[in-house]
Specification:
Blueprint: E1 10-13, H1 17-28, E2 33-37, H2 62-75, E3 79-82, E4 85-90, E5 96-100, E6 104-107, E7 109-112, E8 116-118, E9 134-135, H3 138-141, E10 149-153, H4 157-166, E11 172-176, H5 186-193, E12 198-201, E13 204-211, E14 215-222, E15 228-232, E16 238-242, E17 246-248, E18 278-280, H6 292-314
Parallel strand pairs: 1-2, 1-7, 2-3, 7-18, 9-16, 10-11, 10-16, 11-12
Antiparallel strand pairs: 4-5, 5-6, 8-17, 13-14, 14-15
The structure holds flavin-adenine dinucleotide.
Length: about 325
């Protein structure tokens, strides 16, 4: 770093898998790297008990995996700043100012790795039983429902695709749709309905789940008749998957990037956005598969691209 008014060569917003993978690659390329994280490092994965699909690690807790991402980046010289980023400015001199709730930071390059959050539907018990019967990710948690009954909430493409995927594990999949029809394309719906393990509750909402350590009951409301009813099961014998959409966290820099149909940031193959020096990596991008491995891969590419950008910028 040559300019003393800069805090780093690259600032990375978000200390999840994408952010710390970017930090590993940028730090190994000798850049000075700051990762700004508002909460517990590790991102979304730190909130789950078991991760069984990160290659080369058969089983690990999400918290430990998140911590290892951070430790690896910091061992290479990256530093973590614990603060919430409240605004991002692209200055006339082409540098970036990152405004946090504590300080302002400056760098010639910025990687946004702010992640995404699954949309919740708001029934009673949804938050309480998250990770103990309520899930938002079939790829992550489908395995844990082998031989069990599963309810899928949602009427869109993701709900149909994930319901079909869940039949690889579950004994039975019941799709709960708010309206009297699906929003997903007809071809997808027809393929789903042809699966003998799948049935549908139309015009129905889940209003409540209850349980002990895991779930034992689920309450429904028929949105046409107003009828409500409860289904009881042995504790832990069923699960609920919610597919109501994903919210990529783009508010901070929405003016500096282009967004895709899923609300995620559109990037070039090297994670570049329409603003020179600004890269995006991980779940915040517009993409098909939001997982640790894809976030880490994005981060690796963004960290390398930031190095190339900063090298040119310094000339
Ligand atoms: C319950 C659950 C279970 C999952 N299980 C699996 C699994 O088994 N296997 C798998 O591969 N994937 C799993 N996933 C998905 C995986 O966690 C994500 O795909 C991955 O974490 C995305 O990484 P990311 O770095 O892009 O974003 P995130 O992990 O979302 O990290 C973004 C980080 O940015 C920070 N941040 C956001 N805004 C700001 C701001 N303004 N200022 C400062 N910091 C900010 C956040 O606090 C967060 O730490 C699971 C997800 C969930 C929710």
């Amino acid at each position: 770093m040559t300019d003393s008014t800069m805090n780093a060569d690259v600032i990375i917003v978000g200390g999840g898998p994408a952010g710390y993978a970017a930090a590993v690659y940028a730090a190994r390329a000798s850049l000075q790297v700051l990762v700004v994280e508002q909460g517990m490092p590790g991102g979304q994965i730190a909130t789950t008990d078991e991760v069984e699909n990160y290659p080369a690690i058969q089983e690990i807790s999400g918290a430990e995996l998140g911590q290892r991402f951070q430790e690896h980046a910091e061992a290479l010289g990256a530093k973590t700043v614990y603060a919430m980023v409240t605004a991002v400015r692209h200055e006339e001199d082409q540098t970036f100012t990152v405004v946090t709730d504590q300080d302002e930071l400056r760098a010639p390059s910025l990687i946004m790795a702010t992640g995404a959050t699954p949309r919740t539907v708001g029934f009673e018990g949804e938050d309480t039983y998250r990770g103990r019967g309520i899930s938002y990710c079939a790829t992550c948690d489908g395995m844990f429902y082998r031989g069990k009954k599963v309810f899928v909430i949602g009427g869109g493409n993701a709900a149909c695709e994930e319901a079909m995927f869940l039949t690889n594990f579950a004994s039975e999949v019941v799709v709960v749709v708010r309206r009297d029809q699906f929003r997903a394309p007809k071809g997808v719906v027809d393929r789903m309905l042809a699966n003998p393990k799948i049935s549908v509750k139309y015009s129905t909402s889940v209003t409540k789940v209850e349980g002990g350590t895991f779930l034992h009951s689920i309450a429904f409301k028929n949105n046409e008749s107003g009828e409500t009813y409860i289904e009881e099961y042995p504790e832990g014998s069923f699960g609920v998957f919610v597919f109501a959409g994903t919210l990529p966290q783009t508010e901070l820099f929405s003016g500096l990037v282009e967004l895709g149909g899923d609300g995620g940031v559109i990037t070039e193959e090297n994670m570049a956005t329409k603003t020179p020096g600004l890269f995006c990596a991980g779940d915040v991008r517009s993409k098909q598969l939001r997982q640790v491995i894809t976030a880490a891969a994005d981060g690796a590419i963004a960290g390398t691209a930031a190095y190339q950008y900063v090298s040119e910028f310094r000339k």
